[in-house]
Every structure is written in structure tokens, then in C-alpha cells.
Amino acid sequence: MVRTTRQSVERAKLGLSVNGNVNDEIPKPRRGRKRTIPVEVPVFNGDEKENVDPHTIPVKKAKKKKATKAQIAAEKKSDAVNQLKDFGTNFDDYSNETKKKIRNQIQGNYKDLHQCNAFDDIGSKVMKYLFNQDFIDKMNQCEMLNNLTRWVEFKIIERAVTFRDMIQCLDFKQIPYAFCDQLIQSKRLFEIPEVGYFFYQTLMIQWKVLEEAAKINNQNTQLLNDNAAAQRALVFEQH
Fold this sequence. Notes:
Blueprint: H1 6-13, H2 69-89, H3 96-108, H4 110-115, H5 124-130, H6 133-138, H7 141-154, H8 156-167, H9 177-184, H10 193-203, H11 218-226
Helix pairs in contact: 2-3, 7-8
């Protein structure tokens, strides 16, 4: 048995065997686990941190927090509002194909845009383009009429003609009479002669009204209240 001494180790480094012969086979070291050297993490106080190389200290990356559903919805609504504003401002700069794509996206976000009154500042030309007949037919008619009424009241003189054209696209059979009655009570809305005439022709053609368009005959109103079925635009039914 060969005893391992410091001298034998030195001989092994030089390529010599324990007996001193170069050609003698040198025993290979046994395989085993590599020894790990523990590294102390320095603790710094005061200004000592300023002299430390940042590359020598491991830095943990902060985990990004996932956005909540409310945050995602708010971001989506904000993007939709910005898209609508940009479309209204640069409408004439887009090609016809691009306009159609953007219109489809805006119509898809109509609910969010309507809730935050994003259409108030949109001009007549763009508004009429966005609210085409196919889109109006798919929407809740009361909600659509309410939205258009709010829109026109911001700039009645400038938007009167467009408003008249757009409400003619609505299906008043799906709008309760009482809902229209509330609109008729709006004096400001009836400052538009074309609008007043349209409502008179459309809604009152089979009902007697007083001299003022804002006052509905009490007897006819009572009949509507007594009959729930009559509250859904009976003015369109045939005798």
C-alpha cells in the first residue's frame, strides 16, 4: 500500500510516480462531489455601499404584478376613447378601407364609449358615418335615441340637420311612447323646427294634441297608462 505524503503529491504534479519513475502509472484521483466554498454576503452600513461594485452583488428582479380586471377594463376604455377622438380629428386623412376598419372597432366599443359620453365632441360628419343604418338597427333603440338627443343638445344649431336625418333611421316601434313623451317635453329640442315637425308627424299622427307640442292630451295619455301594450308606440298600428 502506497502512503500518500506531501512529497508524493509533489512528485505527481511533476509527472513522477511515487517511486520516482516517469513511466510508472500515476493513480487517478477519485471522483466525488465538488467542494463548495461558502461565500459571505457582506452587510454594509452607512456610506460603505457607495464603494461597492454593483456587479459583485446579486440583484433580484422584482416580479411584475398582474393587472386586475378593473385595470384592464379601464385601459381598454381609455384606448377606445382615444381612438374615437383621433378618428374624429383626422377623419379626412384616412382611406375608405381604413375608415371602415376603424368604424367597426368603434362600433364594437360603443357601450363603453356611450357610458362615458365620448360622442359629445364628435362632429356631424363623423357621427353620421359611425352611426350607419346597419349599426342603428342592431342597437337598443331607446338608448340610441337618448344618445343622439344628448349629442345634438351640445350644439343644436350645427347638428340639427344631422340629428333629424339620424333619428329617421330609428325604429320607433321599439321605443315606448312614454320615452318619446319625455323628449317632447324638452323645449330646447323643439327649437329645431325640422325635429319638432318630424316628431309631430311620426308620433302624433293618430293622437290629438294641444296647440303646444310639449303638452300631450291628458285623455290620450291616460289611455296609454291604462294599457301596458299601448305604451309601445301605438301610433304606428293600423286601425
